[in-house]
Specification:
CATH class of the largest domain: Mainly Alpha
CATH architecture of the largest domain: Orthogonal Bundle
Distance between the termini: 70 Å
Largest sheet: none
Organism: Filobacillus milosensis
Helix content: over 70%
InterPro entries: DNA-bd_HTH_TetR-type_CS, Homeodomain-like_sf, HTH-type_Tx_Regulator, HTH_TetR
Structural class: mainly alpha
CATH topology of the largest domain: Tetracycline Repressor, domain 2
Number of strands: 0
Order of helices and strands: HHHHHHHHHHH
CATH superfamily of the largest domain: Tetracycline Repressor, domain 2
Keywords: DNA-binding, Repressor
DNA-binding region: 35-54
Protein name: TetR/AcrR family transcriptional regulator
Strand content: under 5%
Number of domains: 2
Length: 200
């Protein structure tokens, strides 16, 4: 017998709740310290219910890390690498990215876990790496555009893009405030200097 719309909605909400509490647990207690029992208790569901949605802890962790990439793709990649005004596009991109990273403290803790133990989480790391490389490629193309228009100094675009994403992650992990604050906006002009705008 097929599930009703209400049952489907309830299952979707339960899965989202599991992912939400699992994200927090994996971020605060690490992979080893997180158990399915802890997840079920935090989500206020039975131990067995978790297995309705995930085969094991490994699949749960992988989902917690990779599921957000779909949503992040929409916002992180929302800039035009061949914009007529690459300086304006860079400024808009930086502001958007700063605001996104300001709210990603818990999630970035998971990313760092995967990167730090990339051999243990090889499949998850591979997908994260592909996502990161696509972002670097698009940022690089915007940098090349600015260089071709003689608005940015000549430097290796991919290197600059790599430094840019590393800087965003570093700022988030080294900033204790939980939400966007005035200090985040104050970083924008300094980050812009990384791309080497030519002063006229």
């Amino acid at each position: 017998m097929p599930l009703s719309d209400e049952q489907k909605l309830n299952m979707k909400k339960r899965r989202e709740n599991i992912l939400e509490v699992a994200t927090e647990l994996f971020a605060t207690e690490g992979y080893e310290g997180t158990t399915i029992k802890k997840v079920s208790e935090a989500a206020n569901i039975s131990y067995g219910s978790v297995f309705t949605y995930f085969n094991d802890k490994e699949e749960l962790f992988r989902t917690v890390v990779l599921d957000p990439l779909n949503e992040l793709t929409e916002v992180l990649f929302d800039f035009n690498p061949v914009a007529d005004d690459p300086i304006c596009e860079l400024e808009k991109m930086i502001k958007t990215h700063i605001h996104i990273f300001a709210g990603m403290s818990t999630y970035l803790t998971l990313i760092v876990q995967v990167i730090g133990q990339h051999t243990k989480f090889s499949e998850t790391f591979s997908e994260l790496d592909q996502f990161h490389n696509k972002l670097l490629d698009k940022v690089s193309r915007l940098v090349e555009n600015g260089q071709e228009k003689r608005l940015l100094i000549q430097q290796e675009p991919f290197t600059v893009a790599s430094l840019y994403t590393s800087l965003l992650i570093g700022i988030r992990l080294n900033t204790t405030d939980a939400r966007l604050s005035d200090i985040w906006d104050s970083y924008i002009s300094s980050i812009m200097n990384l791309f080497g705008p030519i002063k006229k």
